[in-house]
Amino acid sequence: MRIAVSSTGYEAAEPAEERLGRCNYFLVFDEAENLLEVLKNDAALSAAEGAGIKSVQTLINHKVDVVLTGRVGPKAMSAIQAGGLAVYTGVFGTVAQSLKSYLKGEMQPLASPNSASHSGMGSQARVRR
């Protein structure tokens, strides 16, 4: 099983990132906590919109089974479900701490979005009329 954690940096000691679509990196681990791959989230970070979908596509392309994050918007959630990924929320502290929490069964699976569209953009969010 390949487990991705949304992260601010490229090491397990870096802080986990709450935002799925706008995280800087995904760190991919196996169940033995071995770091397999570091994925820079470039396509999503430069996207004006659809960052969550682009992030999920990156995870699918790299054969990720589970993603650990904080917030997931409606479009990203649809992509996660279509791609057959499992998503768990409740990342905290470092990437390593979040991974350990998941492996101990302490994180909650997410079945529906827990964030509004464009919420990861901060002041750049647009109101659609």
From TrEMBL:
<feature type="domain" description="Dinitrogenase iron-molybdenum cofactor biosynthesis">
    <location>
        <begin position="17"/>
        <end position="103"/>
    </location>
</feature>
<feature type="compositionally biased region" description="Polar residues">
    <location>
        <begin position="111"/>
        <end position="122"/>
    </location>
</feature>
<dbReference type="InterPro" id="IPR033913">
    <property type="entry name" value="MTH1175_dom"/>
</dbReference>
<dbReference type="Pfam" id="PF02579">
    <property type="entry name" value="Nitro_FeMo-Co"/>
</dbReference>
<protein>
    <submittedName>
        <fullName>Predicted Fe-Mo cluster-binding protein, NifX family</fullName>
    </submittedName>
</protein>
<dbReference type="InterPro" id="IPR003731">
    <property type="entry name" value="Di-Nase_FeMo-co_biosynth"/>
</dbReference>
<dbReference type="InterPro" id="IPR036105">
    <property type="entry name" value="DiNase_FeMo-co_biosyn_sf"/>
</dbReference>
<feature type="region of interest" description="Disordered">
    <location>
        <begin position="110"/>
        <end position="129"/>
    </location>
</feature>
